[in-house]
Structures are given as C-alpha cells and as structure tokens.
Write a structure and sequence with these properties.
It contains 12 helices and 12 strands. The strands form 3 sheets. Strands 3, 4, 5, 6, 7 and 8 form a 6-stranded antiparallel beta sheet that branches. Strands 10-11-9-12 form a 4-stranded antiparallel beta sheet. The protein has a two-stranded antiparallel ribbon with strand order 1-2. Helix 5 packs antiparallel against helix 6. The radius of gyration is 28 Å and the shape is elongated.
C-alpha cells in the first residue's frame, strides 16, 4: 500500500490524539491509537507505535500508562490542569469588562486546552445568565494599545464616554480627545482601568478601559514618571472606592466589632485598630467620592465617621437628603 501524504506527520497527529482524546480517566490502547491514526490516513504498526510513544516522551509529552483489563495510554500532566481551566473559565465568564461575544470565544479556546472529556465539563460549567457584561468590543484592542504605549514609552489619545438614561453613549468633553501618559493597567471591582498621568491636571488619574473609544498612540513621550513611581498601586486601589477619584483625606472611622472582617477586606491588615469594647476605630487615607459615602452609609450605624468634621457633616447631609426622598 502506498504511503499517504500524512504519513510524515504521524508523530504530530499522535500527539494531537493524546491531547484531545485522552486524560487521566480516559486512555487508548495501542489498537485504538492505530485506529485513530487511520482516520488521518496514517498507517501504524504496533511496534512502531511503542517507538513513537517513547519519542513523544523524550520530546516532553507526559504519556502515562493505566493498567486494568488492558494497557491504555494517556496524556498526563498538561500546561493547565482541569481545576485551573475551570478557574480561568469562571474568571472569563464572570468578568464584567469582557463582552459576551468575546467571553464565548475565549471559553471555547480554553476548552481546547483540555481533552474532549474535560472540555465537556468546562462547557457544562458555563451557565446562561443575565450577568452584566460590557458591550464595547474594542476593549481588547484598547488593552493591546495601552500595553504597546507603555512598552514604547508613548502617550495615548482616546475619546471617553458615559451612559445616559436612554442607555446611549455620551462623549465626555464634547467628544474632545483625552491625551495622557499610561503607566499601568489594573483590575478593580470587576472592571479594567488604565492608570495614567494627566499633564494638564499634573496628577495621576484612572480611566475605565471599556469606556475608551478610538484609541491611538501619540508621538509624544510619556510624562509623570516620578509621580507614578511614588504611587503605591495596592494602596491606591484601597483609597479609591469603586475607582472613583476624589480629594485624598485621612478619615477616622468608628466600627461595630462585627465589621472587622469588612474593614480588613477593604483596607488590609496594615491598618492600626484601636479597640473600644464593642466598637473599634481606625484611620485610613481615602478618596472622598460618592462611592465612599455610600459605602459608609450602607452599613448604617455599624460604620460611622468620627473625623474630620466636614466629612462627618457631608455624611449627615447625604443621609438627610436620602431620607427626605422617602418622606411623602
């Protein structure tokens, strides 16, 4: 019988079969491996398959043996274990900044990193839900452009939008382009943000990547290196509630003892806590913003502002305005 044109690709197809059709719970006998290769018009004798399996092991593929009634071979360790793939699928599925269309495409690719049996488990893991997703398909291009600008030490320009009550995009600054120096990307509260230096305002700002449009790289070199170097990114994300900017202020808070976990989750373990029986106090540097005030008010009397007085009065004012809206 004449050799098919695929015969020289025997080892490659054999590796493909191992990766796609075997795992620690599903192996193939030498006869079954031969049949699988035949589907690609490749002839394989038993002895040659033993040699091929050994070559794949030398190459680095973890070909393992399971023995029950028959001897079966399977691909053992992979670049990603099933538990890791499940974790990545969850991260993609529940990431608000990734569009539904892009989520489906990424999950499909992740399924391809496991065997077909593992892929079926990953597929069942994905549930249809009404979870909020971004609708800006430009986000991956935006992320790539920001990384390139950081790598090439250049500014970027873009238009920035917000949503109105009619669910329409409204360009900020009447559609004028923003031009800033990008220094980092960060993920906070299920959204992707670019941290950049705004030379006009002479300060570090952040922007939602999924709200950036028509992004391009400017020829100008980045600015604000010293400002960014002085920035503690971990502390910055703690200070900016919901990544809303605002005036930095040292705020003293009084909390019910039951709020210890909430406070540590928010501010970390490096805060200094003063215990006062059923309550405790601590001071944190935060950005004063609507999200900070709503965070405090959301816990009722279990978290209250002690000082400064103007922040305390602002919380009172917001609470009174909210109460007035419910009084007939």
């Amino acid at each position: 019988m004449a050799k098919s044109s695929n015969q020289k690709l025997k080892l490659l197809y054999l590796m493909k079969i191992f990766l796609e059709k075997t795992d620690e719970n599903h192996g193939l006998t030498v006869k079954e491996l031969s049949d699988e290769l035949a589907a690609y018009e490749i002839r394989a004798e038993r002895k040659s398959l033993y040699d091929d399996i050994e070559l794949l092991r030398v190459y680095g593929l973890d070909v393992c043996v399971m023995r029950d009634k028959q001897v079966r071979y399977y691909a053992g360790s992979r670049s990603f274990e099933l538990a890791e793939l499940k974790l990545l699928v969850d991260a993609v599925q529940f990431s608000k900044f990734i569009t539904a269309k892009k989520s489906a495409a990424l999950i499909k690719k992740l399924e391809g990193l496991g065997s077909r049996y593992q892929a079926s488990q990953l597929h069942r893991q994905v549930e249809v839900s009404e979870r909020l997703k971004a609708d800006n398909e430009e986000i991956f291009c935006n992320v790539d452009m920001i990384h390139r600008a950081i790598s090439e030490n250049r500014k970027i320009c873009f238009r920035y939008f917000e949503w109105d009550a009619q669910k329409k995009r409204v360009l900020r600054r009447d559609g004028s382009f923003y031009c800033v120096s990008p220094w980092a990307l960060t993920w906070d509260d299920e959204n992707y943000y670019m941290v950049a230096f705004d030379s006009a305002a002479d300060c570090i700002k952040h922007y939602r990547v999924d709200k950036m449009l028509e992004i391009y790289m400017d020829k100008s070199a980045r600015e604000g290196e010293k400002k960014f170097a002085a920035l503690d990114m971990q502390r910055y994300s703690k200070q900016a509630f919901g990544m809303y900017g605002g005036e930095l202020c040292n705020v003293r808070l009084s909390c019910d003892a039951s709020m210890a976990g909430v406070v540590i989750d928010r501010f970390g373990t490096d805060i200094i806590i003063a215990n006062h029986g059923e309550r405790f106090e601590f001071t944190a540097k935060v950005m004063l913003s609507p999200t900070f005030y709503s965070w405090v008010l959301g816990f009722g009397n279990k978290i209250t502002v002690v000082s400064p007085d103007d922040v305390k009065e602002k919380v009172k004012s917001i609470a009174q305005e909210a109460l007035a809206a419910y009084i007939d």
